[in-house]
Amino acid sequence: MTAYPTLTMHIGGQWVADGGAGAMDVVNPSTGAVLGQCPKASTAQLDAALKAAGDAFPAWSRTSGADRHAILRRAADLLRQRAEAISHVVTAEMGKPRAQALGEILSSCDIIDFLGEEAKRRGGRLIPTRGNALIAQMVTHEPIGPAVLLTPWNFPVNLPAKKIAGALAAGCTAIFKPAENTPASAQLLVECFIDAGLPEGVLNLVHGDPGPIAEHLIASPVTRKVSFTGSTAIGKQLGALAASHMKRFAPELGGHAPVIVSKNADVARAVAMCAGTKFRNAGQVCVSPTRFLVAKEIYETFVADFAARASQLKVGDPGADESVDMGPLAHARRVTAMEQVVADAGGNRGEVVTGGKAIGGSGFFFPPTVIANPAPDSRFMTEEPFGPIAGIVPFENIEDAVGIANSLRYGLAAYAFSADLDEAHYLGRALRAGMVGINQLIVSSPETPFGGIGDSGFGSEGGEEGYLAFTDTKLVMLAKAGG
Question: Which of 60, 90, 315, 480 has the fewest CB atoms below 10 angstroms from its CB?
Fold first, then answer.
């Protein structure tokens, strides 16, 4: 086991161990044991980070794309070299099995590489002119300015990597505030960027109470962009604050992903993929397949096979046993939330086929749970559970399934399984989401945009969009001197 690191902040090129606002415990969700003490930034330390980012921006924004790419490439290489050690820390802080932690870290390296390459590629474009007086019409993408990056705990390396790499590649400086329960994972990622040769003040790391820190950083005249991943409720609050200061805001918020399984689907393959993916990261994934809408002709088979697979998953402390399939939830509040969802599905409002009761002992464990035919107005069907609960609902025809899938304001990811090509194309068009997977459950790669619509947010991370999100579009119209 890799030793848990001493927690620090990084402000203006210096590692800072003492928090001006005190310190907070970091707890292992598998055992309830305290891993370490995390410093909490004071207002003065936040102001120092703001000044550092503001002072560093002019020089970093003028740094060539090739030079920015070189630093990001070195950071990705360092992250690959350190992935094994960092994966142990992710497992300790967040509770995901180490194989999943290692996969998250290595995919983050690819994301950093791709966005670094964008710094070399993005030169803008020329637009043909209409008259002889104009010599050129040029469109460029200029770095927007110092950015505030706010990330949650469920992917403590991947989500920060997207934001940090996008900002730095575009020429922005940044102040990064990670989740308070996964600070070491974030710190070890930042170390890779600093050790890669990032200039002083370009990337700053602060810890502490999320609400006051976010409010202070967003209100500052120094910052020009806010990128947030988290709940819809908090995203709306931060979006309103950013709007009041006329700052660009990119929210990646909650989801409640539907999965339509047509009678024309390969049922065995669909069950295997859905059950395997649903409980990844204990269901604490914003794009997790959650509402399974299954054709009545195959409904009973799907429920039985899905529940059987769910009940066979091994739940436990992944730090102590690497054969564990699913670890704990992030904290005790998530266990309570799961219990409330299950209780609401009692009686004639749904059948709990497997799971449904918290696992006793130390840590925050809840078993893989399957609810058959939950009521349309149940908490499960209307609120994002963000945990290891799946609901399976029968449907009569494909149009009805689409109607149920699109009935919520969430619109992050949606999925469908069908071997009928025409039906598959129909489902790809009809499902209302920022990302749709047909006959597969992967909707993210370094080259593709990641984002939703409706209450799931707007804008995208990843792909070229993840670079352009940190830029302003500028038009330069050049005419001959003297007309």
Answer: 480
Contact 250, 225 (CB under 8 A): yes
Q: Which residues contact 255 (CB under 8 A, 6 or more apart)?
A: 286, 287, 288, 290, 384, 410, 411, 412, 413, 452, 456
**What is the DSSP-derived secondary structure letter of residue 199?**
P
Domain, as residue range, for 187: 9-253+457-475
The closest alpha carbon to 282, from 68, 96, 474, 118, belongs to 96
Task: Indicate which residues carry an active-site annotation.
Answer: 252, 286
For 137-148, the pLDDT digits (tens) are: 999 999 999 999
What global pTM score does this model have?
Answer: 0.96
Q: Is the pLDDT of residue 2 over 90?
A: no
Which residues are paired to 76 by β-bridges? none
CA angle 269, 270, 275 (to 5 degrees): 105
Residue 250 has pLDDT above 90, yes or no: yes
Together in a domain, 195 and 283: no
Together in a domain, 415 and 279: yes
Per-residue tokens: 432 = 């209302």
* Rg of the chain (C-alpha set): 23
Task: Write out the two tokens for 476.
Answer: 């330069």
Give yes or no: residues 131 and 143 share one domain.
yes
Q: Based on the structure, what is the number of domains in the chain?
A: 2
Alpha-helical (H) ranges within 136-198 are: 158-170, 183-195
How do residues 100-117 score in pLDDT, each as one tens digit?
999 999 999 999 999 999
Kind plus residue range of the DSSP H or E element containing 116 = helix 98-121
Is the pLDDT score of 1 beyond 70? no
Tell me how far CA of residue 84 lies from CA of 88, 194, 207, 320, in angstroms.
Answer: 7, 19, 24, 16
SS (H, E, C) 133-176: CEEEEEEEEEECCCEEEECCCCCCCHHHHHHHHHHHHHCCCEEE
